[in-house]
Amino acid sequence: MPTILSDLKREPAFWWGVGIKFLLLLAVVPVTQIEWFYPFIGNALAHPDFNLWQSYLDHMPASTFRFPFPYGFVMAIAFLPLTALGQLLDQFFQTAVFFGIGFRLTLFLFDLAVLVFLVKLWPALRRELIWFFWLSPLAIYITYWHGQLDIVPVALLLLALLLLRKMRALEAGGALAIAVATKLSMLAALPLTLVYLWRNKRLHYARAPYIAAFIVGVAILVKPFLLMRGFRYMVLGNPEMDRLYELRLTLGTHTAIYLSPLLYILALYALWRLPRISFDLLYAATGLVLFVLIVSTAAPLGWYLWLLPFLAWHQARARNEARWLIALYSLIIIAGHMVLTQGAYTPFGLVDGPTFLRDTGLTVPDHLYALWQTGLTALGCILMWQMQRETIRQNDYFRLSRRPLAAAIAGDSGAGKDAFAHRLIDLFGAHSVSHLSGDSYHLWDRDGPMWKNLTHLNPRANDLQGFTEDARALMERRAIQLRNYDHAQGRYTAPLVLKSNDVVILSGLHALYDEKLWPRLAVRIYLDTDEELRRYWKMRRDVNERGHEPKKVEDTLKRRKADAETYIHPQAQHADLIFALEPVHPDRLDPAIEHDPHYRLHVTARQGLYHEHLALLLVGLCGLHVTMNPSPDLREVDWRIEGDVSAGDIALAAQKLLPHFAELLDSKPRWSDGMVGVMQLFALAHIDSNLRNQML
């Protein structure tokens, strides 16, 4: 937080907001606070009791307002320290002003907390968030003129979302429980966060601690009060709760459908239908769901504060049309409530009375009030549609709501296809990946007589149609029945079910053979491994791991050479990335010695626009020696990369090159050291480039 505050201090608009709010804080006394909140907090200080609501009902005259504090225990606790300090100052100076200043200063601190949390969530939008939230006329009016308290639960809700984004599940669940213990309405965000956790397999570890922390928090901060008569009367019996049931469809004499809960459930189901949800989508969906509740009810003024952090984010990212619409929406709300609802007292009687109309004795005709509400609803629906279109539909960056992200890795036998596929799985997480290996589509077992006439590299020795159909099924999120080839036995074992997943990786001799798959692939990779290195890998794998005789492996290499040149090598011309690993010391390759040699990397990259930035990171951050030769049209770049680099440096380079890509990777992606890690980085950079092109 100190860093964020120091950044905010450099913004003149921030200080304008501080000045305006402190002026209102010191000079304006909202009628709502005088009539509702001050008596309740004053009673809590005068008659301390765990059941604050019953204590108020017992000590206040019967003629006083009976629902002055429809909030939870945490809300009361939040206001007690500074109001208690203000009360002491009032007693010392024989005044009656510091109690209210302490109360309103509490609101200012939570208002500032909302801004800090917003900037932490979206640091690149700091200046815009200051203008659209901190200086929002609607936020200032609701909090400092009308005197509503909803900025407190909103701050706690944003804290829960911020902690969830940082993958601090335990603290996030606890923070949301505290928000609910402040105002029960914040419970509306819980199902959305659960959908987010369930639709992101990389966050599977966070589900249990998040739910446990929330349940424990509610059990401590909410459940005990549900048994108290005063709490049930003042909070659960609050007339504002009935607003959720006012919009309904009557079916007969005794039956009705409540439309606000129905719309909430439909919005929740629409979110659930997305196979994977980024944090941006969660944030946008939370704002939309809260918007649904407000538009479908005659919402009290305080409820509009729930929307403002989400509307400010939308304004900060949207075009001018959305900004003007939100500004108009805010002004209509302010104008209506200044006429219709309670106002504030100011020095010298500049504005001295609950409302303008009450001063004049005039009343608003019912149809004018209905027209005002109709206009708000219409504008609200337009803004919801706009948020859904620009924030949710266009924010589906990875296109995972329609199909998984797919990658293919082809290359000669022993080139390292499956090994590199597993290095990509290390990044995405095994729980998020379906890996389809071409070995499962050889037509015969190892002892099949047809191998005397054909090699595995010949397309006729493989069920390539079956491979293509199964790959397309996985890309369409359908499960497949897969034969599993056991290399140790040289036989196919019982079929297994391979379910589709968020990421589909194809690897095999012919992974790029069928052109029907090319348009569906986010990246096409060909491994053109140095021949001596490939021989070394194949000997080490087939002799040491699969138990073959060295001479048989040598014979196989010679026998397959012609088919490799005919059927395998031509696939390189259809690849986005061609990786050629070469040993730095080829004379030291010995299959009998279990060690990984040092490599240099030759990369041919096509149709990407990330090269300059990546080169700077590889040189400046990773300390590698890089030679880059682009073609005249920049459609193909030839790279030569040498040196040693750690997995940590590559991970840092990935964060700088692809900061938004973390949503798709595992919670703790495993990067490799050396050139294999560089290959991982190239693959992700090209996936990012291709996906961005799809967005155009």
Question: In words, what does this structure look like?
Answer:
- A hairpin with a 5-residue loop joins strand 14 (625-630) and strand 15 (636-642).
- The protein has 27 helices and 15 strands.
- The strands form 4 sheets. It has an 8-stranded mixed sheet with strand order 7-10-6-11-12-13-15-14, with helices on both faces.
- With 696 residues, it is an alpha/beta fold.
- Helix 18 runs antiparallel to helix 20 (366-393) and helix 25 runs antiparallel to helix 26.
Write the topology of this structure:
Layout lengths: L1 H8 L2 H16 L1 E2 H16 L5 H8 L13 H21 L4 H24 L4 H9 L2 H9 L5 H15 L3 H14 L7 H9 L5 H18 L1 H4 L2 H8 L11 E4 L3 E4 H14 L6 H17 L8 H14 L2 H21 L3 E2 L6 E2 L2 H5 L5 H28 L11 E7 L5 H12 L4 E5 L26 H12 L4 E7 L4 E8 L4 E6 L14 E5 L3 H15 L4 H19 L8 E7 L15 E8 L4 H10 L4 E6 L5 E7 L4 H11 L16 H22 L1
Helix pairs in contact: 2-6, 3-4, 3-5, 4-14, 5-6, 5-10, 6-7, 6-9, 7-17, 8-18, 9-10, 10-12, 15-16, 16-17, 16-20, 17-18, 18-20, 21-27, 23-24, 25-26, 26-27
